[in-house]
Structures are given as structure tokens and as C-alpha cells.
Amino acid sequence: MLTDLTNRLQELDGIFGMMPWMKDSLEPWFESVDGEYLHSLHEYVYTLYLFTASDFISVVYPETVFALFFCLSRQPINTPANNLSLTPILCRLPHTLVWIWSSLLVVCITNQRLPASIREDRLNKPWRPLPSGRLTPTRARQTLLLAIPVTIAVSVLLGGARETFILFTLNWIYNDLNAANSHYAARNLLNGLGITCFGAGAVSVMSCEPEIIRADDEYSWWLIIIVAVLSTTIQAQDLYDEEGDRQRGRSTVPLELGDARARWSVAIPVLVWSVAIPMYWQVESLWGCGVPFVLGCAVAGRVLALRSVEADRKTFKVWAVWMISLYALPWMKALGW
Which of 98, 140, 185, 186 is deepest in the core (most CB within 10 A)? Predict the structure, then answer.
């Protein structure tokens, strides 16, 4: 154990050794910790939370549950389903949350520090750190320069390094190459890949045997299916952000196809996946088939009938619960439900 920790710390030393620019870049940040916007540690932590607050519903909660249910369906390996153990998995739940949140923080700061994002957030999310004035763009950049190596360190120590680098690559394509604004299909696909990457990384951190899970063909197909589900339904989050997206010139399903077609583009795939995913996992119980279908009908019904901004926000929360019901299906199959 001690040897393994020593090796990992040496790896981290090598990582930071390749970044001599970090010291000069971060010194102003440390000097300004007690400055105008960062009066206390509590205030700064709350500011970091605000960067990620709107993504707890779409990323932190669902992808933690995704990892929990899939690991429960495979942990311990080669153990009968009725003897699955919660202990090893729950012990790594805090590690998983740290990995997800630290990776999410990098993604959120990268996106929100862009000038166009600040203008958009003034309309959609004025409470975020940059439009509210809690941080300046310069300090956001300094925070990002610190968050990146910290997140890499977390992934080396806790697991999920492969997924972290894939996520950073997708983040670069989405934000710096402006792929998010090129076409709504590319935007949806990148969102689907990114969120699934959070889930895959969470599995790597939470699992006691991640390499065995990665080699599982059923797991690989499950990730592909999740990308497809997300890519065809994630536009539910764009329904209540139309004003800001229009201001930024984004290509989203509601803006490109119109509000009515966008709503049907959510309702129909949700209903299809609500039937198809339980069939894929061969779940026959009332819980396994009924819960996703009922929640899917709730999403479809709300998105078609309730069209105010506030209603669309609530519908997206129901959509997140619907996704969690799909994530639970591998576990239900393992239990024989």
C-alpha cells in the first residue's frame, strides 16, 4: 500500500514538473485570496460551488447513481447477484463525488469564463460568479489554472485518469473550438459524450476492479446506449434557456427547429427509450418496466403540455429522475427483478 502511494506521488511530481508555468501563473491568485471577492475560505468555496450549481441535476447526481448501480451489478466480480456487497462501493462514494465535482468544475469554469458565456449568463443565470461580479474573468482564469492540475492529481490518486483526459479533450472541442455553436446535432452529441464520460469516470473511481469492468462488453455497449439516449433527449435543457442561447447565437434544437418541433423531439425519443432500454436489459418486473415508462410519460406529457420557462425547468428535473430510472436497470437485472 505504501509503495503504491509513493509511486503515485512520484507520478504527480512528474506531472507538475512538466508545468513550470504553474508557479508564475498561480502566485497572483494566492496573493489575492483575501482580496475584494475572496473575503474568506467559506466565500471562495461557495463561489466554486456556484460555477457548478446548475449541473448537479444533470451531472453530479445522475452520474453518481449511474456508477453506483452499475458497480452494484458487477461488484464483487463473480459473486452471485443475491450476495452483492454495498460496503466496498459505499466506501468509495466520497472519492467518486470528489472526482466528479473536480472534473465538472474545470468544465464549468472553461465554459463560463468566455465573454459570450458571460453575456448569456446575465440573461439565464445571473447568479453565477462572473455575471454577478463575484469573480473577474482574470481571477476565473487563475482559478482554472489551479483547478486543472488539482483535477489531474485527483484522477491519478483516486482513478479515472483516462476519463479525465477524454473529458478535457471534449471540453476543448466544445468550448475552445466552438463546436457547441456549430450545429445542434454536434452540440447534443458532445453533451451526450461528455455526460457519459462523467459516468464512466465515476465507475472507474467507485469500482474495486475497474479494469475488469472496462473489459466487459456489456458495459461498453451500455455506455454507447447511454450516449445515444442523452444525445437524443438532452435538448430538454435548452427549452428554458432560449433567450440566452439566442443572445449568444447558439445552434440549439428549439432555436433551429422551433419550439413545437423541439418539444416533440424530446417527447418521442423519451417514450421510445422508456420501452427499449428495459427490453435491452431483459427486465420483466413491474418496477423495472413500469418506473421508466411512467417517468417517461411524465416527461413527455409535461414537455408537450406545460410550456412556461419555470415548467420547463421542472420538466428537466423530471427528465433527470427518468435517466436515473434507466441507470438502475443493470442493477435490477443483477437482482433478478
Answer: 140
C-alpha cell at 93: 462514494
Query: What is the CB-side half-sphere exposure of residue 11 using CA atoms within 13 A?
Result: 14
CB 196 within 8 A of CB 223: yes
Neighbouring residues of 335: CB distance < 8 A, sequence distance ≥ 6: 81, 82, 84
Residues with Cβ < 8 Å from 160, sequence gap 6 or more?
99, 103, 201, 202, 204, 205
Model's pTM, two decimal places? Answer: 0.84
Count Cβ neighbours within 10 Å for each residue of 104-136 and write b for 16 or more, e otherwise.
bbbbbbbbbbbeebbebbebbbeebbbbeebbb
> What nine digits make up the cell of 217?
462488453
Distance CA 138, CA 159 (A): 31
283: left (phi over 0), alpha (psi -120 to 50) or beta: beta
More confident residue, 298 or 120: 298
Q: What residues contact 325, with CB distance under 8 A and at least 6 apart? A: 291, 292, 295
Are 201 and 59 spatial neighbours (Cβ–Cβ below 8 Å)? no
Amino acid sitting at position 78: N
CA torsion sign for 229, 285, 200, 225 is negative
Contact 29, 139 (CB under 8 A): yes
Q: Cβ contacts of residue 258 below 8 Å, gap of 6+?
A: none
Report the largest interatomic distance among the alpha carbons of the chain, rounded to a whole angstrom.
Answer: 60
Average pLDDT over residues 194-202: 96
Q: What is the CA radius of gyration of the chain?
A: 21
* Dihedral of the alpha carbons of 320, 95, 148, 244, in degrees to the nearest 10: 20
Handedness of CA 327, 195, 68, 320 (dihedral sign): negative
Asked if residues 63 and 205 have their Cβ atoms less than 8 Å apart, the reply is no
- Distance between terminal CA atoms of the chain? 39
242 φ/ψ angles, rounded to the nearest 5 degrees: -60, -40
